[in-house]
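Practice problem 4.
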C-alpha cells in the first residue's frame, strides 16, 4: 500500500475552498492509482481517464484536483523525496554522540530502502523531466535542498574541527549528492553499471568518510 501523499503539489498552497476531508480522500485516491500504475508503465501512456476511473471519479472531477497528469507526478515526487530527505537526516543533522561513520552508514541504508520502495516514481521523473520543464525545475529545486543541507553539515563539522578543510562546502556537497543520485537512478533502471545493492552502504560511506572527514570505514564498528 502506498503511503499517504498529503504534502500538495510542488510545495504549492492548495487552491482556496477546494480542500475538505472528502476532497483529500479523492486526491489521495488519484495519487495512489498513479503510484501503482507507474510500476508497470510510464506516465505518458497512462490516460487521465484511467487515473480518474481508478480513483472512482469522473474525468471532470479529476481536474478539480489536478490540472494534468504531470501535476500528479509532481505531487508524487514531492512526497517521495520528502521520505528520502527524512531518511538522509543523520547526514544533515548528526545527533550528539553518534560518529560520522555510524550516521552516514545509517542514512545510506535508510535512503536505499526508501529508494527501493519508490524507485519506480523517481525513474519516471527522470524519464519525463526532459520533456516537462516544470518537472525538471522541481527536481533541480529538490536536489538543491539536499545539497544545501549537506553543505551546511560540512561547514558545521569544519567549524568544529571534525571535518577536513577542502573545496567549498557546497561544491563538495553537490559532488557527493550527485554521485549518490546517479547511482540510485542506475540502480532503479537495473543498470549493470550501478553499484550492487549489497555494496552501496560500504562504498558510499567510504567515499563520504574519506572525502569529508579523512577517516577510513571500519565496517559499522563505530557507534560513538
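Answer key:
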Amino acid at each position: 500500500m502506498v503511503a499517504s501523499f498529503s504534502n500538495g503539489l510542488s510545495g504549492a498552497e492548495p487552491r482556496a475552498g477546494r480542500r475538505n476531508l472528502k476532497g483529500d480522500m479523492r486526491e489521495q485516491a488519484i495519487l495512489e492509482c498513479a503510484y501503482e500504475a507507474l510500476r508497470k508503465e510510464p506516465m505518458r501512456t497512462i490516460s487521465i481517464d484511467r487515473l480518474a476511473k481508478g480513483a472512482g471519479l469522473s474525468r471532470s472531477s479529476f481536474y478539480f484536483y489536478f490540472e494534468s497528469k504531470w501535476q500528479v507526478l509532481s505531487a508524487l515526487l514531492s512526497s517521495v523525496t520528502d521520505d528520502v530527505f527524512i531518511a538522509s537526516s543523520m547526514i544533515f543533522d548528526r545527533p550528539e554522540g553518534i560518529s560520522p561513520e555510524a550516521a552516514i552508514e545509517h542514512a545510506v541504508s535508510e535512503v536505499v530502502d526508501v529508494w527501493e520502495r519508490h524507485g519506480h516514481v523517481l525513474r519516471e521523473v527522470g524519464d519525463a523531466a526532459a520533456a516537462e520543464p516544470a518537472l525538471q525545475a522541481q527536481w533541480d529545486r529538490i536536489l538543491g535542498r539536499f545539497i544545501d543541507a549537506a553543505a551546511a553539515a560540512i561547514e558545521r563539522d569544519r567549524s568544529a574541527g571534525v571535518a577536513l578543510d577542502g573545496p567549498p562546502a557546497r561544491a563538495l556537497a553537490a559532488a557527493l549528492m550527485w554521485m549518490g543520485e546517479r547511482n540510485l537512478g542506475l540502480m532503479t533502471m537495473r543498470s549493470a553499471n550501478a553499484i550492487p545493492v549489497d555494496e552501496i552502504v560500504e562504498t558510499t560511506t567510504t567515499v563520504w568518510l574519506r572525502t569529508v572527514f579523512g577517516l577510513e570505514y571500519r565496517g559499522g564498528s563505530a557507534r560513538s
